[in-house]
């Protein structure tokens, strides 16, 4: 295996990859390590003003919010330093990556497809037109009277901001009174992100009951290859939709798994996604699979740690090989059951301490416990927050064993949170 890797390294040594990432991304280390393994030259483009980029000695400081200027910065850089591929490590720069690739003639999803994968309203419209089953939806302006909207929608429903990720601002309402509370909370979250009230709309969708799953895949010329299907054993019924446990392989029947893959393939085609990784979220009930969302990126956080392909290839290495045009001989996942828990934040406050980490790590089948929240820093739970306390990883013979190990390890952890952050009012 080492000889094979050395051969690949010599072949790819002259290839340069631009990785676009936010300063707070969890995924920088995994991609940089995989690129080093492949001996690829990596340039990191970070979402920072030029002055801060110079101060922190960042090779390429880019303002992700100013796409035209950022595309010019990237193309100017590429004239001096030819680029083989551009990857957005997370959602934050997926549209910029598509625009820059289009300008440089590099393989990537089209800018229109990248936009559709980020804008939930455009996503829903294209999915509906393309035949991918998805919830009934309507969009409303933040300036509309919520009392009137509350009388025009059906219940239970889910309110969603169009562009926030990680379930931020996603709130279930079961009746008009809950709708009003959810509306003002969502509005406050969206406006805090700098969106203008008079220009911003949000979605109201029918709530789809059922179990939730996540599909990890990769597209080549529009053809979907499923890398793995995750079960989410915890019920995600609201009012907020904080994800916790992912386990794989899925416990669903092969027939249902095939229907899920077909649904994701239809959705990707409807949006125009044709190249690179995809991460899709679906609900499954007696009517079959329903598309919730599909993103033109791989799974977030540190969750990719549990995935291994071929002879020890991590997900990031697989994505990089695909991005530079290398044909991947095998995409088969390791046969062990694996799982990850994204440790939820139980309440707002200041994290004062964490105990029980060693006990959690000692639980059989647990392969790692990583606390990513920083002591003496504020914690903000969903729907306002966008992060977790950390991650627990497990590996075993069956998904049931892995799930129980994750729950047992979580019970070992204790977080001291001082409630020093006032709870914001609903209005």
TrEMBL record:
<dbReference type="InterPro" id="IPR040570">
    <property type="entry name" value="LAL_C2"/>
</dbReference>
<protein>
    <submittedName>
        <fullName>ATP-dependent carboxylate-amine ligase domain protein ATP-grasp</fullName>
    </submittedName>
</protein>
<dbReference type="Pfam" id="PF18603">
    <property type="entry name" value="LAL_C2"/>
</dbReference>
<dbReference type="InterPro" id="IPR011761">
    <property type="entry name" value="ATP-grasp"/>
</dbReference>
<dbReference type="Pfam" id="PF18130">
    <property type="entry name" value="ATPgrasp_N"/>
</dbReference>
<dbReference type="Pfam" id="PF13535">
    <property type="entry name" value="ATP-grasp_4"/>
</dbReference>
<dbReference type="GO" id="GO:0046872">
    <property type="term" value="F:metal ion binding"/>
</dbReference>
<dbReference type="InterPro" id="IPR052032">
    <property type="entry name" value="ATP-dep_AA_Ligase"/>
</dbReference>
<keyword id="KW-0067">ATP-binding</keyword>
<keyword id="KW-0436">Ligase</keyword>
<keyword id="KW-0547">Nucleotide-binding</keyword>
<feature type="domain" description="ATP-grasp">
    <location>
        <begin position="124"/>
        <end position="324"/>
    </location>
</feature>
<dbReference type="InterPro" id="IPR041472">
    <property type="entry name" value="BL00235/CARNS1_N"/>
</dbReference>
<dbReference type="GO" id="GO:0005524">
    <property type="term" value="F:ATP binding"/>
</dbReference>
<dbReference type="GO" id="GO:0016874">
    <property type="term" value="F:ligase activity"/>
</dbReference>
């Amino acid at each position: 295996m080492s000889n094979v890797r050395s051969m690949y390294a010599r072949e790819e040594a002259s290839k340069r990859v631009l990785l676009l990432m936010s300063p707070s991304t969890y995924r920088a280390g995994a991609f940089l390590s995989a690129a080093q393994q492949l001996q690829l030259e990596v340039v990191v483009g970070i979402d920072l003003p030029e002055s801060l980029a110079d101060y922190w000695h960042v090779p390429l400081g880019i303002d992700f919010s100013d796409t035209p200027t950022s595309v010019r910065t990237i193309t100017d850089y590429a004239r001096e330093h030819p680029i083989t591929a551009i990857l957005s490590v997370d959602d934050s720069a997926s549209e910029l990556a598509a625009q820059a690739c289009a300008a440089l003639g590099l393989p990537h999803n089209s800018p229109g497809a990248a936009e559709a994968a980020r804008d939930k309203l455009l996503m829903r419209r294209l999915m509906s037109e393309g035949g991918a089953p998805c919830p009934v939806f309507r969009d409303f302006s933040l300036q509309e009277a919520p009392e009137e909207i509350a009388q025009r929608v059906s219940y239970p429903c889910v309110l969603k901001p169009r562009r926030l990720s990680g379930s931020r601002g996603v709130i279930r309402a079961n009746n008009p009174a809950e709708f009003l509370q959810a509306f003002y909370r969502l509005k406050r979250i969206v406006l805090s992100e700098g969106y203008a009230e008079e220009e911003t709309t949000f979605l109201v969708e029918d709530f789809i009951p059922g179990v939730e799953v996540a599909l990890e895949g990769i597209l080549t010329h529009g053809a979907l290859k499923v890398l793995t299907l995750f079960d989410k054993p915890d019920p995600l019924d609201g009012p907020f939709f904080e994800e916790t446990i992912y386990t794989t392989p899925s416990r669903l029947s092969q027939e249902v798994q095939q229907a899920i893959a077909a649904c994701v393939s239809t959705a990707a085609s409807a949006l125009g996604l044709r190249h690179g990784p995809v991460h899709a979220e679906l609900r499954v009930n007696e009517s079959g699979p329903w598309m919730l969302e599909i993103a033109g990126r791989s799974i977030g956080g540190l969750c990719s740690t549990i995935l291994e392909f071929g002879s020890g290839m991590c997900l990031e290495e697989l994505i990089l090989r695909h991005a530079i045009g290398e044909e991947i001989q095998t995409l088969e996942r390791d046969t062990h059951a694996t799982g990850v828990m994204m440790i939820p934040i139980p309440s707002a406050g200041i994290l004062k301490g964490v105990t029980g980490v060693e006990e959690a790590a000692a639980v059989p089948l647990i392969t790692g416990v990583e606390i990513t929240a920083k002591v003496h820093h504020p914690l903000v739970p969903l729907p306002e927050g966008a992060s977790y306390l950390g991650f627990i990883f497990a590996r075993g013979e069956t998904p049931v064993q892995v799930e129980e190990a994750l729950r047992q390890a979580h019970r070992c952890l204790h977080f001291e949170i001082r409630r020093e952050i006032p709870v914001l009012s609903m209005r």
